[in-house]
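Expect chain and fold; see below:
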Amino acid sequence: MSEKTRFDSSLTSSKQWIAAALIAAVGVAGGAYLLRGPGSAAAAPASGHADAPSHKDGEHHGEAAANTDANTGAKAGAQADAHQEADQHGDEEHHDEKAEAGSKDAHGAAAGGHAEGEEAGEGLVKLSPAQAKAAGLVVAQAGPASIKKQVLLPGEIRFDEDRTAHVVPRVAGVVASVHAQLGEQVAKGQLLAVIQSPAVSDQRSELQTAQRRLAFAKRNHEREKQLWQERISAEQDYQAAQQALQEAEIAVANAAQKLSAIGAGAGAGTGGSSRYELRAPLAGMVVEKHLTVGESVTDSTASFTVSDLRSVWAEISVAAPQLPDVRMGAPVVVRATAFDSQAEGRIAYVGALIGAQTRTAPARVALANPQGVWRPGLFVDVELLAGETPVPIAVDAKAIQRPDGKESVVFVPAEGGYQAQVVQLGATDGKTTEVTSGLKAGQRYVKEGSFLLRAELGKASAEHAH
């Protein structure tokens, strides 16, 4: 082989090595560009170009051109890769932002729906129609009504003084026997007790003496009259006999009236002339007894009290501000304070004077008492109807509940059960209550059984709190 040939071959081999080195340098520069970013990519060509002066000019220019083309391609590829990566990263970030925003919107919508569902279900007692029927719920309609103005007065049951007798002997003496017991029902004229009285004995003796004188005066008058008619006796003898007869009649009548005034009969009976019988002046019950056998009594000793308890009085104490509402004939309802019992009546009497100590006026209600429920001494409340006020919307007072102890609610039918409806209340008479807001006229509400719904609502609230 010639020297020229060897030189060309050696030149060709050197060029191949240089090309390989340039390609490796371009690869390293491209990798650095990708790793460090676009700002550091310009350093690689400068480094490659610094090595170029060791070669020939032709090689240098050829290598520079190749380096320029390689750099240009590397830059373009690096920029394309960087742009693609940026677009991909931006798309991923945008997708993540959208996903996050969607998640937030979904969470907010779920939270809002949950809150709205809780608000809609608050105060709702879920109850099926069958359960409501089994619980005894009664539904009514709110509407116009009349609120009664009622006055509550204190009172006490007393004896009907028109049907009560306080029995006294009316003579002095000693109790011989007692025939009536406390609490016994007696008839009019029934024997209560027997008293031995010297005063009665004297009165009967006087009557008997007067009766004998009357009998003698009658016989003398008949004889003198006959003699005067036969003109045997003078007229003045007949007139004297007639006057004596009249005086004897007056004496008998006077003695009989004395015995009648003390309640003693003319006949002495089996107990002697001193026997005095104490009898019931009317039919009724012996409510007081103060006699025992052998007891000495006077003409004013309280012995028995007999009262017809089929009628009693309710005595009322009326304060001065309430007097205008208490009128004769006004209807009232009397309720016992010790047990569940009531009766209707009317005001029978209103006192004209106010007591100096109590500053109240007495009033009275006559009550029929056929069963003996109203016993004297029993305290009562007298409810007086003083007037009525019409209202547009009212409900039964039993329907109003206060689950939290503050707001008043009325349960109204709702989908799936019964809803607690907050209401504002007005006047009430204990049976009917005015509703100023919260219900409409004609709206249905639970009239009976609302207490059960209140209990269920409280149970549900406690479970929700836990």
Summary: The chain has four domains: 3-101, 124-143+389-465, 151-160+307-387, 198-273. The chain has seven helices and 20 strands. The longest strand covers residues 379-396. Residues 89 and 95 are 10 Å apart (CA to CA).
